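Co-fold these.
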Amino acid sequence: MIPLSAYVFISAVLFMTGLVGVLIRRNFIIVLMSVEIMLNAANINLVAFSHYLHSMAGQMTALFIIAVAAAEAAVGLAIIIVIFRGKMATNVDQINILKW
Amino acid sequence: MMWLLFIYFATVSVVAGVLTVSLRNAVHCALALLTLLLHMAGLFVMLNAEFLAMVQIIVYAGAILILYLFVLMLMNLKTEEQHLHKKPSVLIFAGLGLLAELLILLMLSPYGGTLGTATSEVILQTGPSHAVGLTMFSDYLLLFEIVGVFLLGAVIGAIVLAKTPAKTDSPETATTPTS
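Predicted complex below.
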């Protein structure tokens, strides 16, 4: 029987990987992919706790997270397309028009 | 056996996550993310959540990742010589420090709570999908409807954002698209 802490460990490692990816990558699309890694890490945590605490609530939340991630990807990629059309840039340090 | 499977899925997903963050070519990153998502689905199966694993494969690996690949190939990005920010090592060390702190906190914290009624035996009597369906359409019905409206809003927003602007500088190129 695998203990709950093993799943939580994997989840923490993946979450920090995604966070480092958000911080270090220049490409906007890969920043979004790193956000997907972080959402997945949260999902694995929720499902693990749902399994070990004998409740369906975690699985339900994970399902809704997947739906929200789909919406996030659609809108985020649409925003990237708009920016790319106007500026021909996909690097986050070139998109600084809102920088004060 | 369970441990073997767990170690396989866990190591491959962590390695794929690191590759997603570190690879230079964006399409390779997307493929590494695909590996990560598929192995995550394997972990879901090990946790008795088969329906969620299928949703993960269909929605994440099937729909979201294809969307990413479409946009990547539409933009025709070149592999850049500088794919990271100026000083990535500082941020990587900050991330590693945060991870160490997180793991120490997780070691120290007790896991527990009130156990629910949906034990593995109860779920496996009718199957996980059945249990998910019953819960979703009874306790979580309002949330389900809200997510439906939310997705509709996201679809409309994405279409409005990505639509070609109606006013162009040269109208004849807008009416007759070149092949």
